[in-house]
Fold this protein.
Amino acid sequence: MKIMLGALWLCLSTGVLAEKMKWERAQFNYKMFCQGCHSPDGTGANSVPRMKDNIGYFLEIPAGREYLVRVPGSATSALNDRDLAEVLNWIISEFSGDSADENYERYTAGEIARLRVHPLNELEHYRTELLVQIATAKSKE
Ligand code: HEC
């Protein structure tokens, strides 16, 4: 019994440790690769949109979810698929405030790989168009 409990504890604690490592790696990658433009707390500046308290709204519609990956800062970043998935999940968990549900569907490396090969070029109108679609979807809820 003792051994079983010990094994269980070991499994649980390595699981917790692995999650902690992923979180810290994502935080580090955000600092290294995104924060320069997006600011430490996701507020943004000038032409860099505010992610803080807003970013989760994009998850409301499939095209919005895809947009967060296909935007050039994400799609063409030096991060590999796993790390980019982690950073986006970190950004959403850290910055979205009430805009995302706590149990939002996490990005996976596979989803990132599939989407980032289609980076967006024309952004301004596309983003505005998405926000209109999201507002329409929300008003029907
Ligand atoms: C050189 C500056 C720069 C860097 C570095 C950068 N971004 Fe961005 N990001 C932007 C700008 C500017 C926009 C607005 C859309 C556009 O014009 O590309 C944006 C938009 C975004 C958006 C969409 C937000 C919205 O509300 O429309 C996401 C998500 C994003 N970036 C993620 C990232 C991630 C993740 C990284 C780091 C791996 C990153 N960006 C690095 C400049 C940057």
About this structure: The radius of gyration is 17 Å. Residues 33-34, 36-38, 47-49, 51, 68, 71-74, 77, 79, 87-88, 123, 127 surround heme C (CB under 6 Å).
